[in-house]
Every structure is written in C-alpha cells, then in structure tokens.
Amino acid sequence: MDHSIIQIEKLTKSFPMGKSKFTALYGIDLSFGEGEFAGFIGPSGSGKTTLLNIIGSLDVPTTGNVLVLGNSVGELTAKQAARLRKESLGFIFQSYNLLAVHTVFENVEFPLLLLKYSTSERRNMVMDALAWVGLTDKVKSKPPQLSGGECQRVAIARAMVKRPSLVLADEPTANLDAANSHNILQTMVKLNRDLKTTFLFATHDEKVIGYLRRKVYLLDGKIDKDEVLSN
Predict the structure, then answer these.
(1) Hey, which residues does 4 pair with through a beta bridge?
(2) Which pTM was predicted?
(3) CA–CA distance, 146 with 152 (Å, rounded to integer)
(4) Per-residue model confidence as pLDDT tens digits over 28-48
(5) What is 36-48+77-228's CATH number?
(6) For residue range 164-180, what is the model confidence (pLDDT) as tens digits?
(7) What is the DSSP string of 124-141?
C-alpha cells in the first residue's frame, strides 16, 4: 500500500428528524491507501452509503475530519467540492444514470467536456475507456439499445475516462444477474491493477464482497470489523 489518499478521523454524521436527530455514523476512524480495492459492507441503514457520500464530497461531516486527496471535505466550498469530483473522482451507481438520447461515446465523453481537453484528446480518452470495458463496437449505440450489463460497463467507462485517483461505487451490481456482475467486477479488478485506481464500494452483495481485498464491516453506524486480505 502506498501513501494514504483518504484519512477519516472521529467522523460523526447526524441528520435532523423532526425535533430530534438520527445519527448515521459514530466516531469513524479509517484510512485508505493508493490502489486499494475495498468496500463498506453492512445491511441497509448501517451507514455505508452515507460514508461513501461524505468521501465523495456529496455530503459533509457533522463532526470530525475527512481528508480526501489532501482536501478536507468539511471545509470545501460547494465550488471546491464540485471541482474535486470533476477532476479526481469517479462515481458508479446501481442505476446507470446514462443519458438515453445520447450515444455511448457521448455518455462517456460527458465528464471530459467539463475539463480542458481538445476534441482529439477527448476522442482518444473515450476510445481508451471503451476498450477497457470491451465496448468499442457500441460507440454509436444509445443506452436503450444496450443490455443492463452493457449499460453498467458504459457507466464504468464514464467513471474511468478521466483516469480518476478514486472511484466510488454504490451497489454497482444491484441490477445485474450473476454473470454480468462477475464480468463487471472482473473489469474493475483489472482497472484497479492496470491503472492503480483506488476503488471503494458500498455493498451487501456477496458477489462484490468476494472480490474485495479489504472489507470494512459497518453495523449501526460503527465499524464492526476491518479485514485486510493478503493478495
């Protein structure tokens, strides 16, 4: 493991509920190094998606500190948080969030339009990303013409196209059958190994859990177990 890219210290997250509050995370201390393939595991309501969202700067801590690639998430302005996501993070969700009226190429290119790349640079990067997920033959297709597994592979290509330091995946196989799930996970493992991208999952899917090299179990907003597997 190389240097730490995520450092979490005494993280607590609470949400208002009427006149009281609901605490989703209690005093979390964690760090992740470059190139990890890790996941937060636990039942619904255990806090795993909340934790992933804070790491992704989509939410902020109530107390404590979360450093992501040297940025203190709780201290970022909305503009700074958006820039961190735009430049350094990739996101993969259980719903593919593809734009149905656009081609596969256009869907994957979209994150690059927010960055300063030339047309030819964007084209090369998109074609590289589609090659990683085995979809160069679908470049002109639109999402409604694709299978669920193909749509999720497009979503991975879109997350990876800018070669982010960190990819956050929230139940990425929830809508897929077993064969497609394994195909998707094997693709992610290969990208993790080839590009040294850090992958962090939120899941309770046994198929995903089987691929993880580090498993952080959450229960009622606390770390129940942190298990690192030897490669």
Answers:
(1) 33
(2) 0.92
(3) 10
(4) 999 999 999 999 999 988 999
(5) 3.40.50.300
(6) 999 999 998 888 888 88
(7) HHHHHHHHHTT-GGGTT-
